[in-house]
User: What shape does this take?
Amino acid sequence: VSTTENHASSHIPAAPIFLPEGPWNQIPGGVAAAEGFKATGIYGGLRAKGEKPDLALVTCDVDAVSAGSFTTNVVAAAPVLYCKRILDISNTARAVLTNAGQANAATGKEGYQDMIECVESLAKLLKMKPEEILVESTGVIGQRIKKGALLKSLPTLVNSLSSSVEGADSAAVAITTTDLVSKSVAIESLVGGTKVRVGGMAKGSGMIHPNMA
Amino acid sequence: TMLGVITTDARVTSDVWRKMVQVAVNRSFNQITVDGDTSTNDTVIALASGLSGLDCISSLDSDEGIKLQACLDAVMQGLAKSIAWDGEGATCLVEVSVSGANSEAEAAKVARSVASSSLAAIYGRDPNWGRIAAAAGYSGVSFHQDLLRVELGDILLMDGGEPQSFDRRGRDAASSYLRKAGESHDTVRIQISVGNGPGRGQAWGCDLSYDYVKINAEYTT
Assistant: This one.
């Protein structure tokens, strides 16, 4: 069921990135460009149709200082409630798991429990504590995640982690839903005389009017 | 839904990082709009490994703090603009820049109000300054309408609250500016000045097309 990362970027092209001018250089590698980060995206059988990657993982080799900004929509999805709780009790994190296809929103206690099971299973594979793992979901509202397929894909997901450009690109594809392009960028700049890298990936095409706090 | 994962190898204290990230989100993702629908799942997670070797940043106002904030703003704006560029059914990115407001927050509010307006006129390639002025007017930010200046690209549509005399050539030039942007999925730039204040802000959206309705009619829950 699961495919490896190198099919990912053949699914959708990369978006043009319009970076503002500034004292930085654009470099490849997206979320995996900064020191200590790895990423991957695979097809885990979560999407309603097609075989575009739909499961992404970003990890950090060390405890990373964590921050988050979340929807202020009071009908908040399970991963939003979970991440806010984790960020309240911890200043650091080691991983971000993202699934595309089901938003796990308006899914009640079962939806929340489904996510907890996936986090606990991933924590074992990564040899991390569950509270070191943050979660993002996107897709159809009201549907629970395809937990069986997700759990089955975790070993392949963890084994395909890499700090390569392909790893970052495949993760950027795996988080998309109705997007026509993947969104990934990284820059390098001198801060305090030291070379610092900042990278990221994003998704979004419809239901877009963020008011995050 | 928009999701974001941001990573850096800068070293920064937890409270400074959390403040920095929210500032950058307010200057980027919270300034985009495609359809006015705020999702149940919108999330940005940002992780700092500290492995670059940089000394730990413990103040937003330090030189290093200001530089890291600028880098964070740039990455998030680059990603946010690509989301608006890829809006469902979009044929062009709409970038709204506002100046002359009393504060950055007020300028951002006017900009987002204009970007959020269903400027179907953009899809119709109609340089409709009236819709732009109206969207600025209902933003909730007060300003003197006789100070309002609106430019589309480098074509002045309104100045000092007065519509510019618009001969056929001028109107055709403005329409072809919009058409070219739509044909090459480029950026339509709307510049608005609302007064003489120091506040500047930007927002990004896209034009509203028939395809948006079609895509969403088929995306059933």
